[in-house]
Write a structure and sequence with these properties.
Helix content is about 45%, strand content about 15%. Strand 1, helix 1 and strand 2 form a beta-alpha-beta unit. Helix 1 packs across helix 7 and helix 2 packs parallel to helix 4. The chain has 12 helices and 13 strands. It is of the alpha/beta class. The chain has a single domain, classed as Rossmann fold, CATH 3.40.50.720. Bound molecules: nicotinamide-adenine-dinucleotide and thymidine-5'-diphosphate (TYD). The site of nicotinamide-adenine-dinucleotide has 31 residues, from helix 1, helix 4 and strand 5. Nicotinamide-adenine-dinucleotide binds next to helix 1, helix 4 and strand 5.
């Protein structure tokens, strides 16, 4: 580990990004962390309030598609590493506005790759190349959907089926192309569904927590039969930390947790926790469950084989699911101001248009 690394983290004001920025700023006081974020509806500097004054941290508001800004940042900071998380991340939004996903997830990624390629090849001697790394944070959704059996491995062929997963798959391919064509040192990880605090309440779990709290219907798509493999966000950021420092350039690592849940089962589990925490009669939250029209092209099942990460880098998930979920519920119930802030304005308008009328 080099104590003086300068790292660009993109999307650091979002859900996973803010956990990662906090971890790097606190764990590596010798590093300099620059957080580049456009602050879309999903980006929130309140997520980083506790570390914003740290000397080894700075924030830049800007778009990863802004090539002049991105080149200027590389020129000024001489980054050793990039951890790229900035993205449009919500499948339902990608169905409504695919172009936003093409622009940020594909064009934005290429803009960053171009800057890294230009500055790293122009400014550094070959022996220092090994200090440089472009880490692209991606999703298991690039692999498409599974039937009732099987797991995604790093060798599974890409078969993305939503505009979101297609845009992420496309960016993964471009990142690999820069490794093969230009020898840019890159790493990709593909992770399963994350949960935890600071997640925007359009994703299933925080949406359900917020709606149950407010006695609003909890929309479950179709029959709630779809399956996701849930991982606590802090286990994801621990894996990113490990892969960033010990992973092999050119390689891909799957991150998951062997924690598969049918949507309807996880919602029932959550309803039980909410009844208890809110002091409501058992069964009252479950009455809010509202089966709505299915998401178009809804992938049936995601499940990750993370044995490569386990074997090569000795990573395994550490947060027990029920404990992690309880902690997440507590956080949302104790942070009403955060929820009120992020559910005002643009989100409410979008939410009303997309979901409430269903
Ligand atoms: P998020 O939507 O919470 O945050 C995305 C962040 O990116 C926000 O802060 C937003 O302001 C910023 N951003 C968006 N467009 C930008 C642009 N053009 N320029 C600069 N910043 C921009 O997303 P998340 O859930 O934290 O996901 C982070 C990354 O991890 C994404 O790349 C996503 O594909 C990947 N991922 C997420 C999950 C998950 O379950 N949430 C799982 C696997 C992989
Ligand atoms: P989501 O949190 O959007 O993550 P992803 O689509 O990336 O997996 O959704 C998780 C699962 O929950 C997915 O199968 C879709 C489903 N879902 C609902 O049933 N209702 C909802 O309101 C939302 C947002 C998702």
């Amino acid at each position: 580990m080099n104590p003086k690394r300068k790292i660009l983290i993109t999307g650091g004001a979002g859900f996973i990004g803010s956990h990662l920025v906090r971890m790097f700023v606190k764990k590596y006081p010798g590093y300099r962390v620059v957080n580049l974020d456009k602050l879309t509806y999903a980006g929130n500097l309140a997520n980083l309030k506790d570390i914003e004054a740290e000397e080894n941290y700075s924030f830049v508001k800007g778009d990863i598609c802004d090539s002049i800004l991105v080149h200027k940042l590389f020129e000024e900071n001489n980054f050793d590493g990039v951890i790229h998380l900035a993205a449009e991340s919500h499948v339902d939004r990608s169905i409504v506005s695919p172009m936003d996903f093409v622009l940020t997830n594909i064009t934005g990624t290429v803009t960053l790759l171009n800057a890294a390629k230009q500055y790293w090849s122009a400014t550094i001697a070959p022996e220092r190349q090994k200090r440089k790394l472009f880490y692209h944070v991606s999703t298991d959704e690039v692999y498409g959907t599974l039937g009732k059996k099987g797991f995604f491995t790093e060798k599974t062929a890409y078969d993305p089926r939503s505009p979101y997963s297609s845009s992420k798959a496309s960016s993964d391919h471009l990142v690999r192309a820069y490794f093969h064509t230009y020898k840019l040192p890159v790493i990709i990880s593909n992770c399963s569904n994350n949960y935890g605090h600071y997640q925007f309440p359009e994703k299933l779990l925080p949406l359900a927590i917020n709606n149950i709290k407010n006695n609003k219907p909890v929309p479950v798509y179709g029959k709630g039969e779809n399956i996701r493999d849930w991982l606590h966000v802090e286990d994801h950021t621990r894996a990113i930390d490990l892969i960033f420092h010990k992973g092999v350039p050119g390689e891909t690592y799957n991150i998951g947790s062997n924690n598969e849940w049918k949507n309807i089962d996880i919602i029932f589990l959550l309803c039980g926790i909410m009844d208890r925490k809110l002091g409501r009669k058992a069964g009252s939250s479950a009455k809010l469950i509202n089966f709505v029209k299915d998401r178009p092209g809804h992938d049936l099942r995601y499940a990750i084989d993370f044995s490569k990460l386990k074997k090569n880098l000795k990573w395994k998930p550490s947060v027990p699911f029920r404990k992690g979920l309880e902690k997440t519920v507590d956080w949302y119930l104790n942070n009403e101001a955060w929820l009120a802030q992020v559910t005002s304005g643009e989100y409410v308008k979008y939410y009303d248009e997309q979901y409430v009328k269903r």
